[in-house]
Amino acid sequence: MSVIEIQDLVKVYNNTAVQVTAVNHVSLTIDKGEFTAIVGPSGSGKTTLLNLIGGLDEPTSGIIFVNHIDITKLNSKQLVDFRLNNIGFVFQSYNLIPVLTAFENVSFIMEMQGMAKPVIQARTREILTEVGLGDRMNSRPNQLSGGQQQRVAVARAMASKPTFIIADEPTANLDSKATAKLLEMMENLNRKEHITFLFSTHDQRVMNQAHRIIVLEDGKIVKDDKMADPE
Q1: pLDDT tens for residues 99-122?
Q2: pTM, whole model, 2 decimals?
Q3: How many C-beta neighbours within 10 Å does residue 12 have?
Q4: CA distance 110 to 119
Q5: Phi, psi (deg, nearest 5) at residue 103
Q6: Mode of pairing for the β-strands spanning 35-39 and 212-217
Q7: Rounded to 10 degrees, what is the CA torsion of 42, 48, 49, 53?
């Protein structure tokens, strides 16, 4: 069952000197539960494509269906609500709120969704324990390592069980040990929670773990390899 379907997607940036086609007539389907990496050199359109899928940017033309809803037809308020309730985001810079604890950072999205307090508290404890931070719930970001902060970011993205998670270069600021832990954790959560993961990366370690690799060059898909389903 598809959760993302893109049809003939184009994104053109215009400035005074140059017109850049960042995404060039891309069509793509992502099924539920996929663990997919979008790869390519800098400037290939990876981040632009993720921003379009996540409703953070508007396409020049084309259609983006998420759960069979064309998000290109939503107005600004509808897009905000849609992102809040359907998409989790993980960024390379973590984007945690510095004055909040790990527990409060993870709870934040569910509070915005209006969930009941007991549900929020139980889910926050559950997901932080799953990502190996059960003993660091009351720590603020500056009291955590980079790898721990990124695990909090993943926990926050997954807490409300979104349709899919977009992870833009999630390992860029992590060392090998932290990267290995993060990837193992995300793959385990992917299998357990059946949440779709969509990465942009040029990290070979992420590519090695991905179940599908989509290669972009100059805004076009030049290769799409789907591995055998992991046992």
Answers
A1: 999 999 999 989 999 999 999 999
A2: 0.87
A3: 14
A4: 9
A5: -60, -45
A6: parallel
A7: 150
CB 191 within 8 A of CB 185: no
Fold topology of 34-45+79-226 = Rossmann fold (3.40.50)
Q: 222 near 215, Cβ under 8 Å?
A: yes
- 36 three-state secondary structure: strand
pLDDT at 212: 95
Cα 83–chain centre separation: 11
Summarised one tens digit per residue, pLDDT across range 211-224 is: 999 999 999 999 99
Q: Give the mean model confidence (pLDDT) for residues 8-17.
A: 87
Cα 45 versus chain centre, distance: 16
Rounded alpha-carbon distances, angstroms, from residue 132 to 17, 110, 126, 152: 49, 20, 10, 10
Angle at 144 between CA 141 and CA 147, to 5 degrees: 105
Q: 202, 41 in Cβ contact below 8 A?
A: yes
Q: Is 166 helix (H, G, I), strand (E, B) or coil?
A: strand
Buried b (16+ CB within 10 A) or exposed e, 44-70: bbbbbbbbbbbbbbebeebebbbeeee
